[in-house]
């Protein structure tokens, strides 16, 4: 089993640096690239913290999934996170009960709750009423009482836009989604949508017809990419809010007899397993889904077992995986 020393040697940093990164020490002055490298190596070596094994109490946890099983099939991002949560709970010999959002469940005997996804204010109040320790996974409600672990979608979206800009693209489109999945509720714009708009407006290049919002599915990506390609003055590149949408976009490009990236460049988000095997391999923002799921279990376990009152809000770094789906317009053919 991998140790902190193994990670430190491979990352070429000190053992204390690795330990502080893996324990979310916000006072540590280390650049994002080093943090990314440590997290990547920890995931690659399947590092598992030892401190939890010393605890004797076996916890009973409830996992509330924002997505249904059908939704997970369409967007494997949440499937990957859920599997990581289940795997880590099994390693720690915790009992884990998993339910979909809106399902009825019995909270008797539950020590803590993991909420996977973005929940409405009303849903958060209902969960809070159970009076159990709670951690939000892949979202960070504006509350001072909950643990959370998530990614900074605004920051990572801006990094994608800067990359496309540096590649010479000025006519940049966007295909995004919303987090309502049939719950009948209006939702605020996704952070990636907001970041795209702000980036383009700041440069006086925002065009409403270049923006398309639907659901986070490949079917939607196919439909919306066709709409963008049908514009008289179509974008040269499209930032797509997740890889499932990107799959549909590339299929649409191929079906239309066009080529990616020669005719249309595509950047995805998440780096799902199949992204690097697509044709062309997809440039996308890698989110460390397994690490997030596993550490979420560790965090809620720590809060329960130590009776920690101070909530922890953890923001994980991400990595832009540059592959072959973006054309650099600055390079001469």
What does this molecule look like?
This protein has 333 residues and is of the alpha/beta class. The chain has helices at residues 4-11, 15-22, 32-44, 69-74, 76-91, 121-128, 153-166, 191-202, 218-229, 243-255, 289-306; strands at 60-65, 95-100, 112-116, 134-137, 147-151, 172-177, 211-214, 237-240, 265-270, 283-286, 313-316, 319-321. It folds into three domains: 4-44, no CATH class; 51-152 and 288-318, Rossmann fold (3-Layer(aba) Sandwich); 153-286, Rossmann fold, CATH 3.40.50. 38% of the residues lie in helices and 17% in strands. It has a six-stranded parallel beta sheet, covered by helices on one side. It has a six-stranded mixed beta sheet with strand order 7-6-8-9-10-12, sandwiched between helices. Strand 3 (112-116), helix 6 (121-128) and strand 4 form a beta-alpha-beta unit. Helix 7 (153-166) crosses helix 8. The radius of gyration is 21 Å and the shape is globular. The protein starts with a helix and ends in a 12-residue tail after the last strand.
> Which CATH top level class of the largest domain fits?
Alpha Beta
- Relevant CATH superfamily of the largest domain: Response regulator
Major sheet details: 6 strands, parallel
**Would you count the extended β strands for me?**
12
What do the pLDDT scores average to?
90
- Low-confidence stretches are 180-185
What class would the helix/strand composition place it in?
Answer: alpha/beta
Please estimate the helix content.
25-40%
- Counting structural domains, the number is 3
SSE ordering: HHHEHHEEHEEHEHEHEHEEHEE
Determine Rg (CA atoms, Å). 21 Å
Could you tell me the strand content as a percent range?
A: 15-25%
Name the quaternary structure. Answer: single chain
The CATH topology of the largest domain corresponds to Rossmann fold
């Amino acid at each position: 089993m991998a140790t902190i020393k193994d990670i430190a040697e491979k990352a070429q940093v000190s053992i204390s640096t690795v330990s502080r990164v893996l324990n979310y020490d916000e006072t540590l002055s280390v650049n994002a690239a080093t943090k990314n490298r440590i997290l990547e190596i920890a995931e690659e070596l399947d590092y598992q913290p030892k401190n939890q094994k010393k605890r004797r109490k076996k916890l009973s946890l409830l996992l509330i999934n924002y997505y249904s099983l059908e939704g997970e099939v369409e967007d494997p991002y949440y499937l990957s996170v859920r599997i990581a949560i289940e795997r880590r709970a099994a390693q720690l010999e915790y009992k884990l009960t998993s339910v979909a959002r809106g399902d009825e469940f019995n909270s008797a005997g539950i020590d803590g709750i993991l909420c996977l996804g973005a929940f409405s204010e009303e849903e958060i109040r209902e969960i809070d009423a159970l009076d159990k320790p709670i951690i939000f996974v892949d979202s960070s409600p504006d509350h001072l009482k909950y643990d959370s672990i998530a990614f900074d979608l605004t920051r990572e979206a801006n990094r994608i836009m800067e990359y496309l800009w540096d590649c010479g693209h000025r006519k940049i489109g966007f295909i995004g989604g919303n987090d309502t999945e049939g719950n009948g509720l209006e939702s605020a714009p996704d952070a990636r949508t907001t970041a795209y708009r702000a980036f383009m407006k700041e440069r006086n290049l925002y065009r409403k017809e270049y923006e398309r919002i639907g659901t986070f599915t490949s079917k939607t990506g196919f439909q919306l990419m066709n709409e963008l390609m049908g514009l008289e003055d179509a974008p040269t590149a499209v930032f797509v809010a997740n890889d499932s949408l990107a799959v549909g976009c590339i299929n649409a490009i191929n079906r239309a007899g066009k080529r990616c990236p020669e005719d249309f460049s595509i950047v995805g988000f998440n780096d799902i397993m199949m992204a690097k095997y697509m044709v062309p391999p997809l440039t996308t923002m890698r989110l460390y889904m397994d690490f997030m799921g596993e550490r979420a279990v560790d965090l809620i376990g720590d809060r329960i077992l130590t009776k920690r009152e101070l909530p922890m809000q953890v923001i994980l770094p991400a990595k832009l995986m540059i592959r072959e789906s973006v054309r650099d317009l600055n390079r001469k053919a």
